[in-house]
């Protein structure tokens, strides 16, 4: 078997109460790597087209990839895959922490779960043994309470879990599982899928060693990676403040979603307000650093909050996306409201981006008289009102009153109430994250047309454009090859199980090619990376095509692409030619712009996609 793998996957059918182990096909490792590459291949084979996202046929996969559990640095990620109840298509979301590496050490390379249990259950995995256990006593607990209870029940303080809170139990579309108390594969409704299956948690504990092809070479690469990081001008800031180190600058530069994407940070939010939510200010609550498994950067932090309107005790530092969604997007500079919102989301299991932006949509609708105080259960949802934000978020977490509707997201609420659709800021139904396409134009293509829409952690040219001068980024010809190249690289990085922040502190692409070869034991060049990444991308695209999703169904809200343009601020007068960016990408990928289908020629050239060829072209390849 290739290195980086135990050569064992676990398939759980909760309807039947069955657990079946299968080997990992070697050709899948060599051609799809792992992570959501493996996940897309398995789900495409296991799931029927048109499966109900909250029904028994939806398959939920937890997949670390080959790097987690090894000694490679920045290797703490795992991916959650399933069909999304939010978008109706393919979904993958990844998370750091310790759960993914622990799953590998416990003997499994992936866990795939289908069916629906007739009662709440959790999955207990320890050193190659797995069992389904009753979780009736855990149902109703929040994610942190569940972790504490399973530590006691298993008698092991070092047990790692991924669990849903009450929002997942209620199948809120905004629900996500939480691992390690505050890390989350947040987007696309994975918590709702777990809740639909009555799967409260997966608890794992392992002591195994992950075999690798060349352990000495991994240690050599580690040394070079640390040297690259320490030579990079940003590493100390990332290490000290994590992603909150960019909150202030991103807000003022035009990168953040100020006032539901209708405002300009330096004008509508201002320098003083932006500074209040910066890591430099929030870190007065910091008690110690937090680092994911095998991470030399350590961009997280644990907090102790015993003052203000909501004394939380032990909690965690919010990430930039959370700070943006509950801060500038709502014109709220109240740090205690931000910290409380973060804690509610971590405990109940809610995607902070979608939760914050759903409130932003409701807030603008309230400001414009579209939603009344009565609609919002007598909450005075004025811009910047921290008390109102926390009150409404708590209703969403509890599924109470108007919160039961808003807990399914802004697009769902607009349909349910029949109003406010023109103020949605979404991509194919999911709220857009905190990086502005009007500042990084390539993000428009990624948000709209990646098979997993509305994600800032997917590849493409957008994030790299944020700091470029206007004459270099507002260029709409010839972007396709670079866009595709950056996308395929990120596909492989994600599927290997590495953290994308490594690139933010200077770790080169070559270092990851070297890691892949040293871990798995196969030659791995830039060309190998491109072909593998494109194969994975096509596999995800094929999943959506089988669900009937075409490019015409892939939408993005007008406001975030400058239609109409803002009149003032850093991205004033910017209107993107998002259609040309899409045409460029589709041409480079050899996808048809009308149907979204990869060409038969390109599928044959990539190889190992025979099932896709048969479905799309009625051809055995």
Describe this structure as you would to a colleague.
With 621 residues, the protein is of the alpha+beta class. It has a domain at 9-205: Aldehyde ferredoxin oxidoreductase, N-terminal domain (Aldehyde Ferredoxin Oxidoreductase,  A, domain 1, 4-Layer Sandwich), CATH 3.60.9. The protein is built from 27 helices and 16 strands. A hairpin with a 6-residue loop joins strand 4 and strand 5. Helix 2 (35-46) crosses helix 21 and helix 12 packs parallel to helix 14 (352-367). The longest helix has 21 residues, at 526-546.
List the helices and strands and how they pair.
Blueprint: E1 9-13, E2 18-22, H1 26-32, H2 35-46, E3 60-63, E4 78-83, E5 90-95, H3 99-105, E6 110-114, E7 121-126, E8 129-134, H4 143-154, E9 160-163, H5 166-169, E10 178-179, H6 190-196, E11 199-205, H7 215-231, H8 235-241, H9 247-253, H10 265-276, H11 279-282, E12 286-290, E13 300-305, E14 313-316, H12 320-326, H13 335-348, H14 352-367, H15 386-398, H16 402-406, H17 410-417, E15 426-427, E16 430-431, H18 442-449, H19 462-465, H20 470-473, H21 480-496, H22 501-504, H23 509-520, H24 526-546, H25 578-589, H26 600-606, H27 610-617
Parallel strand pairs: 1-6, 7-11
Antiparallel strand pairs: 1-2, 3-4, 3-6, 4-5, 7-8, 9-10, 9-11, 12-13, 13-14, 15-16
Helix pairs in contact: 2-21, 2-24, 7-23, 9-10, 12-14, 13-15, 18-25, 21-24, 21-25
